[in-house]
Amino acid sequence: MQLNTLSMVHEFLKRHVGEGAQCIDATAGKGRDTALLCRLAGKTGHVMALDIQQDAVDQTRALLAQEGLQAQVYLDSHANMERYAEEGTVDCVVFNFGRLPGGDPHIVTKAASSVQAIDAGLRLLKPGGVMSIALYYGGENGYEERDAVLNHLKTLDDRTFSVLRCDWINRRNDPPMPIFIWKEQ
Fold it and tell me: Would you give per-residue pLDDT tens digits along the chain (185 residues)?
């Protein structure tokens, strides 16, 4: 297995999401994280996914149909996830900040809505819940969102949240950064 941000996030999810979990894929993209969450949460779980691009919503729905999986998929911003779930009811929230792979490189997540979405996700998490962030930056995306997200995460109360940021110090260019958050019991 190639160790990269995606494999680390998926391993984290496999360790923390189980049968019956309530999950949100806040940036659906191609639907791979949504599908994984559906498999992990099982028949008694509930998964929802959001994305601002119709192409991403369509790709996610197609992948779920192909794999025989069920999730609610919404064409909406990750910053609006509180419209679809109640505070303190979610086991897991997943983000991939950046852009849709193969999509329009000018449509990217933005610092302000991403920080707002992180806060919404943290409110939705139940005690013991987890959040994963794959933070893609550089190139077309620039560094504004990365810097805003990292600076915001530093302000989280360490009595309520544990935040682990991983850096690839021997990889070239701007490798995506995995970040993991646990909400204390």
Answer: 679 999 999 999 999 999 999 999 999 999 999 999 999 999 999 999 999 999 999 999 999 999 999 999 999 999 999 999 999 999 999 999 988 777 787 788 898 999 999 999 999 999 999 999 999 998 777 899 999 999 999 999 999 999 999 999 999 999 999 999 999 98
Q: What is the model's pTM?
A: 0.95
User: Which residues on adjacent β-strands are paired with residue 165?
Assistant: 179
| Six token digits for residue 25 | 């894929």
Residues with Cβ within 8 Å of residue 171, at least 6 apart in sequence? none
Q: Which 3 state secondary structure label does DSSP give 169? A: coil
- Listed in order, strand segments (DSSP E) in 98-176 are 125-135, 161-165
Q: Are strands 72-75 and 161-165 parallel, antiparallel or unpaired?
A: unpaired
What is the residue whose two structure tokens read 């190139």? Answer: 139
DSSP 99: B
Select from 133, 168, 171 the least CA-distant residue to 149.
Answer: 133
